[in-house]
Amino acid sequence: MMEYLNRAHHMNLFRFTAKYEGSKMKKIILALMVCSIVLSSSAFAEDFLGAPVPKGKVSLQTDARLEMTTPLTHDEIVKYYKEALKEHEDIKFRNWKNSTYIEDDGRLKWHSITITKNETPASIIIAKDNWTWIIGTLVLRYIAVFMVLMILLLGMSLSGKIISYLVQKADKAKQKTAA
Q: What are the start-end ranges of the E strands in the chain?
């Protein structure tokens, strides 16, 4: 029974391809290829690690970093990124002396976008999150928590000694006045 169904399926497939063989089939295949090329190139040309990229010249691109220059001014680039990233709530824009630093504190694949100021053409650097930075931040926080706890312990120990000394002194004064 299965062999019969397999033969019937192949026969129907053969009839379909035979029916559309020739110019119609070539046109369909060509149209599908053109659509896939156009859609895939436009999807990958405007972002890097999910971060939007304005038009410009790429000078360095690796798996973790994109460096490029663009003829746009610094203010135009910042406006572009504010518009493109407005739906993300964990984005922070930091305006520094020589650059604007856009940082993602959420779960996006990229970590930062740096836009230089006072350069023509302006340069943009998009960097990926890396484990060195993540682990380093966690280690610093871990150490900082224990430093704060040690300071609190020393403060409480010191205040406990002072309070104990004052209570003992007050008890001795009461004993002297009672005697």
A: 47-48, 51-52, 57-61, 65-70, 91-95, 99-104, 110-116, 122-128
CA distances from 39 to 20, 43, 66 (A): 25, 6, 22
Tokens of 87: 């739906």
Cα distance between residue 92 and residue 66, in whole Å: 19
- The pTM of this model reads 0.52
Q: Which residues contact 124 (CB under 8 A, 6 or more apart)?
A: 53, 54, 56, 66, 67, 68, 69, 70, 77, 113, 114, 115, 116
Number of helical H runs and strand E runs in the chain: 4, 8
User: What residue type is 99 in one-letter code?
Assistant: S
Higher pLDDT, 75 or 38: 75
pLDDT of residue 177: 86
% of the chain exceeding 70 in pLDDT: 76
| 51's tokens | 């971060």
* Interval 42-72: pLDDT, tens: 333 467 877 888 888 888 888 888 999 988 8
Distance CA 129, CA 120 (A): 28
